[in-house]
Design brief:
alpha+beta; homotetramer; 103 residues
Chain lengths: 103, 103, 103, 103
């Protein structure tokens, strides 16, 4: 059973620009093989709990390599009997609205 | 000065499927005129604090119209002297990575 | 109608220790007159939407005074016909458990 | 190295009152042996990444036993070389403020 997860890792105390660390995170995510969607505030992943949390920890650890402190925020949406929600969740909303959404 | 915000409204106790309520939220967002990006876990908006929070409240109230309880989660990223971050934040990461990200 | 809210403000780029900024936030909260409870990860407030959001914005602005960037996270739990949930929510759980919880 | 974590599990679609499920979560937490503090919006835990995430998963799974859907929100604050932050973080703020905070 797969879960849908959004997460972000914020280094605290390394500087105002955090895009180098976000680049490290998204390199790990893109190389993981799991379906993902990046947005300006975080990354959405879908997969088994263990596989997803393993990637979240790898990303957190990568940021902590050159940061004294990091905040990692994880939101898990778990719904029985549903798969490929990373695509279908918004499609279902678009059908109800009868319009395409900006993504 | 504009802020970058991600938010989501989750009705609690109305049922397992919440896409009708998410459709209501995204109709309000899409009609607001503010730049937005919908993702499977929330919606990213950019604008002045007052304008953005006004939309968040409208969406929350719309869900509370036919729900006894709702949870609304708001994450604000505020950075001085930066605008149009809803586009530029990921572009800056893509430049560092030398690749296009899935969005 | 009052809402129950937890929020935290995290300055990004000012340094690894953020307790001076958290002190500023909690001074504003404690002086607001609204019922609150501080915990190691955030502050819980109860009040009308406008009154609570006004305090959240004051706290965010206070941190942005000496920070280039800040992340503010707000979680709203809104339930019709319920008041003083800042006390009663955990009491109801303690009654079900038949034990006092550490707070 | 220990991390400081706040988490909450929200069953979606089981009903408006979720205190029976929060009671299940806090029974697991209180029996875990890890230092914790419950608040009206979530529970703060301190421990090694694996130990903490194991408890979060146990709580999530316990709620999913009698729920079709659940949302679990986890916020991790990781700071090198610091321990017992579940007590010390607020104490440090209280010292700066020269006053006791409500908790």
């Amino acid at each position: 059973m797969s879960i849908l997860v959004e997460f972000s890792v914020i280094p605290v105390g390394t500087g105002v620009s955090i895009s180098p660390q976000i680049a490290k995170v998204l390199k790990i995510v893109a190389g993981s093989g799991l379906p993902y969607k990046a947005n300006p505030m975080g990354t959405v992943l879908e997969g088994e709990w263990g596989a997803v949390m393993d990637i979240v920890k790898k990303c957190h650890d990568a940021v902590m390599k050159d940061s004294e402190r990091a905040l990692t925020i994880v939101t898990i949406d778990d719904r029985k009997g549903k798969e490929m929600r990373i695509e279908k969740k918004l499609e279902s909303v678009e059908q109800k609205l009868g319009m395409k959404l900006k993504t």
